[in-house]
Write a structure and sequence with these properties.
This protein folds into two domains: 4-55, no CATH class; 62-138, SH3 type barrels. By secondary structure, it is mainly β. The N and C termini lie far apart (37 Å). It has one helix spanning 44-53; strands spanning 4-11, 17-25, 28-33, 58-64, 74-76, 79-87, 93-99, 101-103, 108-113, 116-119, 127-131. The longest helix has 10 residues, at 44-53. The strands form three sheets. The protein has a five-stranded antiparallel beta sheet with strand order 3-2-1-4-5, covered by helices on one side. The protein is 7% helix and 48% strand.
């Protein structure tokens, strides 16, 4: 059985975000990595209360963006990606940004483009440019 990877955002009292990365195998949490939650400068007695109130768990999609092998960024649910969607008459690139979502209808990760769901695996060269917590302004 494959390991499922997740991340959960923790918004600290100072407004910064820290990410709690964890994985599950056979229904048991097996590991965590990334910055320790203690780095948030939250009082220890409020740490988990604030953490639970922050964001939802976001699952790793199993895919990486197109920045190149050495710099490839894992794509998680809740990430905002940039895609080339068209070209102008003069050949200029037209880009747009989209949130990675999970569809309960299609049982897959993807984006919503206009009124259609597009599978993540069908997207050409997505680039992670942010996420819905730290960069909500990028989600048009």
């Amino acid at each position: 059985m494959r390991e499922l990877k997740f991340r959960t955002p923790c918004k600290c009292q100072n407004g910064h975000f820290r990410w709690y990365y964890w994985s599950v195998r056979f229904g048991i949490q097996v590991s965590y990595w990334g910055p320790r939650i203690i780095d948030c400068n939250c009082p220890s007695d409020e740490l988990w209360e604030g953490f639970d109130k922050c964001g939802d768990d976001e699952q790793f999609t199993g895919m990486y963006d197109a920045k190149g092998e050495a710099d490839a960024t894992p794509i998680y649910q809740g990430d905002i990606i940039s895609l080339v969607i068209d070209y102008d008459e003069d050949g200029s690139i037209i880009e747009d940004s989209f949130e990675i979502i999970w569809s309960d209808v299609y049982l897959a990760f993807g984006i919503k483009h206009k009124t259609e769901f597009v599978y993540l695996c069908e997207l050409e060269q997505p680039i992670v440019i942010g996420n819905i917590y730290e960069n909500p302004e990028l989600n048009k």
